[in-house]
Amino acid sequence: MMHAHTHDHDTAHGHAHSSAEPMRDFSRSSWEERYQSRPAVWSGQPNQPLVDEIEHITEPGTALEVGCGEGADAVWLAGQGWLVTAVDLSRTALARATAHADEAGVAQHITFTDTDLTALLTAGETWNLVTSLYTHPEQGGRWLVETLAPAVAPGGMLLVVGHHPTDPHAADHPDLRDAAFDAADVADALSRDEWEVSATVRERTTRTADGHERLWRDAVLAARRHS
Ligand SMILES: C[S@@+](CC[C@H](N)C(=O)[O-])C[C@H]1O[C@@H](n2cnc3c(N)ncnc32)[C@H](O)[C@@H]1O
After folding, report:
1. What's the number of domains the chain is made of?
2. Structure confidence at residue 12 (pLDDT)
3. Residue in 25, 35, 135 to alter for ligand 1 test, most ligand atoms within 8 A of Cβ
4. Which residue has the higher pLDDT, 170 or 98?
5. What domain range includes position 62?
């Protein structure tokens, strides 16, 4: 069990809801409780690192999104022409994501599922894009990269984004600090014979609803699998 801490874990969206429930760990039940504790956890806007990396891709294909939360990124991807499979641990989050996709008119382009990731990937299916933003699974960033890499089709792209350990928000919250990672470290899981890897720390600022500036330091791993 990770350290108990109440936090306002605003993601890249820069939302400003305050957390009623402490986030004790990153397990399925903990996420489910957190989503049930308030009507919306995230802002509904896509994450900027996703937009930055994917916007310019002119030939969208199939995409797997892991840790889709309330669906903002999946809806944005579907709007860009991707056919999306979106996975999350929380049924409450997935129900909101489904409603969000309906409202945006892209529900038929997204399959939402709470299937365990390992089980989902056993069949060996591959996608042209595999993304995971701020998922911070219990097993860690490296596990995530190792698990997702085989799901990327030849010529496809893997995008894994998380809080960098020097992110001020993560540094303030022991549970997030434990889950934060450096992209270059987790990129070690990828063979350079098979992958062209970009591992960076990206700094950006957002403004919260109450007008405060928030500095972000994101760990961004973007890797292209050779064809
Ligand atoms: C910090 S939230 C980020 C949600 C979304 N990607 C965003 O940026 O708004 C992390 C999400 O990952 C989900 N999650 C954590 N571990 C997971 C796992 N092993 N498989 C699928 N989803 C997971 C949680 O339920 C939660 O919705």
Report:
1. 1
2. 40
3. 135
4. 98
5. 28-225
Atom of ligand 1 nearest to the CA of 139: 19
Q: For residue 197, what is the domain's CATH number?
A: 3.40.50.150
In the structure, what pLDDT confidence band is assigned to residue 11 with cuts at 50, 70 and 90?
very low
**pLDDT band, very low/low/confident/very high, at 19 (cuts 50, 70, 90):** very low
Identify whether 23 is part of a domain: no
Question: Does the global pTM surpass 0.85?
Answer: yes
CA distance 163 to 202: 10
CA 84 to mean position of chain CA atoms = 14
Q: Determine, yes or no, domain membership for 10.
A: no
H-only helix segments in the chain: 28-36, 48-54, 72-79, 91-104, 117-121, 141-148, 168-172, 174-179, 183-187
The tokens describing 114, both together, are: 């709470």
Say if residue 25's pLDDT is above 80.
Answer: no
Contact 31 CB / ligand 1 (< 6 Å): yes
